[in-house]
Amino acid sequence: MKKQIVKEFITVKKVRYLPREEPPPPPPPPRRVLIVGRCTLDVINICNEQPKPGIIERTDEGFWRLGGYAPNTCCVLRRLGTTCEFLGQLTKVPAFESLTNSFQAMGIEISNCPRTNQQPPHRIIVAVRGKAQQSTVEYTNHSHELTYQQFVGAVDYRQYCWIHFELRKTGETIRMVRAVRAYNERSPDAYIVLSVDLADMKPQSCLMAALADYVLIRKQLKVDNGYMNGRETVWAVRDVMDVARRRWQSKQPKKSPYITEEIPELDPVTCRKITSHQPIIIYNNYEEGASCLMPDGKYFKVGPHKPQKIVDAIGEEETFVGAFIYAMQGDKMSMRDAIEYATRAACFKVSIYGFDQMRCMPKDLVACYHA
């Protein structure tokens, strides 16, 4: 009995392998750029001169492709090497599967896009060969636009570092912009940069632009309102934005604070002074030079650029926007360098067909000077 007890106590359990250490958690995936807008089917005809009414004009050059302001911006970002996502309504009609295939071929994320059974919006573009002139006939309606409920249901804010909005259906877009701003207030460490496209001077459009960090003005806005140059354009947009903001604030119900007997001391960290938000306003025009108005009122302008030959001017403004986002988000350039790079990219775009050759664009400003 004694020997048996001793034998049990001196038995040692052999351990062959030590337990493995738990692997470290994988790093979070890099945040990407989100472009919100509308996808169209572009039918492009290139003529020697603008067609005259009542006359049949024949041409031997024409094609159709994926189009629209937001998809073209995504194309530029992908050609420059930036991971991006498009968010907008896509069609499930089999005849238009090529639009979805074009997104997938370029590596643009579209998994969160809502699908519809109606035909997509389309544009007929008549461009003049060798000139930056084009006429566009566009078919679209409000059913093709992304709604606020679809946006909120599809977007996970933690995945994005920059969101750019195309100006479509302004009432819905304002709610989307405010939703992103509310997230930025809740999560300042994961701040999302907001930029919007401004195509007109309507009060509601300017109110939406006042909520963003960057406002990118189209060239046609200057022509429609009769402004003389880029400096006058950016200052006029700033004034209209301020008027729209004050008018909206005057219509809001006034808050009546609860007055306590003892007034507590204000914490300077949590109770900060409320200041009016002023976005950076940029007017893009490679022929005249891009203009920029900073929030503190400082204005500067980059030099103009002239292409050797105009081949395809369709998508020039989208190229400026995509190159600017790439320069600010990817390469972390300064404001002046980013606008200079975007201006050179727009000038390079009009000298090539489509967006495929944008991958030949130098990826930094220094290489642009040696190209």
TrEMBL record:
<dbReference type="InterPro" id="IPR029056">
    <property type="entry name" value="Ribokinase-like"/>
</dbReference>
<dbReference type="InterPro" id="IPR052562">
    <property type="entry name" value="Ketohexokinase-related"/>
</dbReference>
<dbReference type="GO" id="GO:0006000">
    <property type="term" value="P:fructose metabolic process"/>
</dbReference>
<dbReference type="GO" id="GO:0004454">
    <property type="term" value="F:ketohexokinase activity"/>
</dbReference>
<dbReference type="Pfam" id="PF00294">
    <property type="entry name" value="PfkB"/>
</dbReference>
<dbReference type="InterPro" id="IPR011611">
    <property type="entry name" value="PfkB_dom"/>
</dbReference>
<protein>
    <recommendedName>
        <fullName>Carbohydrate kinase PfkB domain-containing protein</fullName>
    </recommendedName>
</protein>
<feature type="domain" description="Carbohydrate kinase PfkB">
    <location>
        <begin position="32"/>
        <end position="159"/>
    </location>
</feature>
<dbReference type="InterPro" id="IPR034093">
    <property type="entry name" value="KHK"/>
</dbReference>
